[in-house]
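Subject: for your reference before the review

Hello V.,

The reviewers asked for a structural picture of the protein, and I figured it would be easier to keep everything in one thread rather than splitting it across files. Below is the amino acid sequence we used in the manuscript, unchanged from the supplementary table.
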Amino acid sequence: SGYEYKRKESNKNYETYEKQIKFAKRTGNRVQQEKVKERAKFNVNKEASKNRGNGKVVDDDEPPPEAPKKWKDYSVEFHFPKPKELAFPPLQLIEVSFSYPNRQDFCLSNVDVGLEFFLVTCYHLRVHPSCFSLEMLL
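And here is what came back from the structure prediction:
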């Protein structure tokens, strides 16, 4: 997916940058360190101008980052208000019979069916024929 690709590319750019900076620091060459930082800044600006050319939204108020950053995953938590209970029952059938016209072997007699909304977000369906009892949460 696009998200995975972008994440992979971002982490790859970050790792390359980190390796180059570590190598430059290990050699103690200050000029090499500056070159790596300048190259990273150039690549970020190049990517930003490419995005502007493709019509992607770029926030001009925020300065571009100086170096590639490691991709950080995050989680989002939503809080919804507790739904209120509804009047009970909005649909109820009492002692009804069901059968098919040409099938005498299948018949439900004296069935009580109630559709109860306990919350706005879910409902219970209860079926109570004389031979079995079933409660399903749909």
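For the response letter, the relevant points are probably these. The beta strands are 91-100, 103-119, 122-128, 134-137. The mean pLDDT is 71.

Happy to draft the paragraph if you're swamped.

O.
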